[in-house]
UniProtKB/TrEMBL annotation:
Keywords: Calcium, Glycoprotein, Hydrolase, Metal-binding, Signal. This is Sulfatase N-terminal domain-containing protein. Residues 1-32 form the signal peptide. It comes from Ameca splendens. PROSITE patterns: SULFATASE_1, SULFATASE_2. It comes from the Eukaryota. PANTHER family: ARYLSULFATASE, ARYLSULFATASE I. InterPro entries: Alkaline_phosphatase_core_sf, ARSB, Sulfatase_CS, Sulfatase_N. Belongs to the sulfatase family. Pfam families: Sulfatase. Residues 48-361 form the Sulfatase N-terminal domain.
Length: 568
């Protein structure tokens, strides 16, 4: 049998073979070659190898076991043989989800509660935060990151290799071309964005990023000795974020999808499915699998304007409806005690920090002060989750709802402020949660953006919503008027959390960040010895003054469009 390239099986062969045994021949294994898995003695007492795979903008309905039009046989089988997390929450946009994974803290405790870190902002993950990879390094792990960072890079001290990763290959900004690695932050503000370690990796231009990142993970696995040191790999795919780009061979199986954006989007999901298949095989081939934990997670909800779907959930990426924050997630591992099941345990993305530190052998003192919980027993053994409550966010800078007031919040909370919290079965939203319609998967050949200006796309006439999301996961029945007692309790919880919040870190953009002033590539532009010249409290006051000026509907609409743009 002829060998194939490192990028793996073709899509058609993958779709037809994926449900067979996981002992199938690898793309690089010739016929009659002995399977090296059986020649490696599985480590017994060493902490587990941890592979965390995150996709970008993959919607709740964009995986085989939730969808009828996207085929992901590999992800489906891994999830079916592991534990599906069907009560799992992330954040509605990129930076917040990654920051909470890496720090185990809510956005209000890192100052990143507003929007994302934009390429020209002198901002990054706060330096006083001990990151998850730094903790794992302390516990003896070899740590590696591949893919999208999006946690700031204005100083070298912000880079992944300075925040706990031994090696890094990927992009620093929020989105880029999948082949040229060009990333733009507005007209004529474009630069190259592929980095290895702390250097620009010009020579890799032209390689499809999903394939490049997969190849990198396989090389890490091949070069490391699984018996000598536990391994942590954070694979943060660029896919399936815009732009919609994919090799043609992945698109052919979806020719029956009439909507062009959905067709390309589905093809990109299939390329990720193939990538995970090749990584899983490498775990077996090089002796990691029997002592490994593979975690799959999205970073936020899907964007229907770009082919994604969160159906039947309400809302989309960038909103605090379930379609923006209910994440795809599963855990696959031989170490799970109760496998092949669906978990309804409440899990939040901050929980991975204490969970993985605990699995690595760390004690509770290493996770003191984080907002996450160790949920391993809930996932592995089916026990009750230690988590009862999730603060989705409090964003004091987001457009204030004109219909909100302190009076409508019973004198407890100003309901003009965008905030959301879940406690038990109840979920409360205040302010403007974002676009809140239910959007079926696109099936028409075209999907003009003007469709969003139909009569249902209007500003909400209220500023408080309450749902029993256990019984009403699609958020169709607002119970805020029927249960004011619950509303008051959750508003009081928002007040409690808000008292612990740190000032928002959202500095003005720095013109010195222009890639053309830095050799044509995005990267650190401020020396580590330079003083940070902005004052966060001053920035917050300036933003509050600006908000008072935003009274016309056209300005609000432009701000919302910017928030939901492809730059996020």
């Amino acid at each position: 049998m002829a060998t194939t390239t490192l990028t793996g099986f073709s899509v058609m062969s993958l779709l037809s073979l994926a449900y067979l045994s996981w002992d199938l021949m690898s793309p690089n294994q010739v016929e009659n070659e002995p399977d090296p898995t059986f020649n490696v003695k599985s480590p017994v007492q060493q902490p587990p190898h941890i592979i965390f795979i995150m996709t970008d903008d993959q919607g709740f309905n964009d995986i085989g076991y939730h969808s009828s039009d996207i085929r992901t046989p590999v992800l489906d089988k891994l999830a079916a043989d592991g534990v599906k997390l069907e009560n799992y929450y992330v954040q509605p946009i990129c930076t917040p989800s990654r920051s909470q994974l890496i720090t185990g803290r809510y956005q209000i405790h890192t100052g990143l509660q507003h929007s994302i870190i934009r390429p020209r902002q002198p901002n990054c993950l706060p330096f006083d935060q001990v990151t998850l990879p730094q903790r794992l390094q302390q516990l003896g792990y070899s740590t590696h990151m591949v893919g999208k960072w999006h946690l700031g890079f204005y100083k070298k001290e912000c880079l992944p290799t300075r925040r706990g990763f031994d090696t890094y290959l990927g992009s620093l900004t929020g989105s880029m071309d999948y082949y040229t690695y060009e990333s733009c932050d507005g007209p004529r503000l474009c630069g190259f964005d592929l980095h290895e370690g702390e250097s620009v990796s010009w020579r890799r231009r032209g390689k499809y990023s999903t394939h490049l990142y997969t190849q990198r993970v396989r090389k890490i696995l091949a070069a490391h000795d699984p018996l000598s040191q536990p391994l942590f790999i954070f694979l943060s795919f660029q896919a399936v974020h815009t732009p919609l780009q994919c090799p043609q061979e992945y698109i052919y199986p979806y020719n029956e999808l009439e909507n062009f954006a959905r067709r390309k989007y589905a093809a990109m999901v299939s390329s990720v499915d193939e990538a995970v298949r090749n990584i899983t095989y490498a775990l077996r081939k090089y002796g990691y699998y029997k002592n490994s934990i593979l975690i799959f997670s999205t970073d936020n909800g899907g964007q229907p304007l770009s082919g994604g779907s969160n159906w039947p959930l309400r809302g989309r990426k960038g909103t605090y409806w379930e379609g923006g924050v209910r994440g795809l997630g599963f855990v696959h591992s031989p170490l799970l005690r109760k496998k092949r099941r669906v978990s309804k345990a409440l899990v939040h993305i901050t929980d991975w920090y204490p969970t993985l530190v605990g699995l690595a052998g760390g004690n509770e003192s290493l996770t003191e002060g984080v907002d996450g919980y160790n949920v391993w027993e809930a996932i592995s053994e089916g026990k009750e989750s230690p988590r009862f409550e999730i603060l989705h966010n409090i964003d004091p800078l987001y457009n204030h709802a004109r219909t909100g007031s302190l009076q409508k919040g019973f004198g407890i909370w100003n309901t003009a402020i965008q905030a959301s919290i879940r406690a038990g079965d109840w979920k409360l939203l205040t302010g403007d949660p974002g676009y809140g319609d239910w959007i079926p998967p696109p099936i028409l050949p075209g999907f003009p953006r003007e469709y969003w200006n139909l009569e249902r796309h209007i500003k909400p006439s209220k500023s408080v919503w309450l749902f029993n999301v256990s019984g009403d996961p699609y958020e169709r029945f607002d119970l805020s008027e029927q249960r004011p007692d619950v509303v008051k309790e959750l508003l009081a919880r928002l007040v409690y959390y808000n008292r612990t919040a740190v000032p928002v870190r959202y500095p003005s953009e720095d013109p010195q960040a222009d890639p053309q002033l830095n050799g044509g590539a995005w990267g650190p532009w401020m020396g580590d010895e330079e003083e940070e010249t902005w004052d966060y409290q001053k920035e917050n006051m300036e933003w509050k003054r600006k908000l008072k000026m935003f009274k016309s509907r056209s300005i609000f609409r432009r701000l919302n469009t910017r928030m939901m743009s492809n730059r996020i």
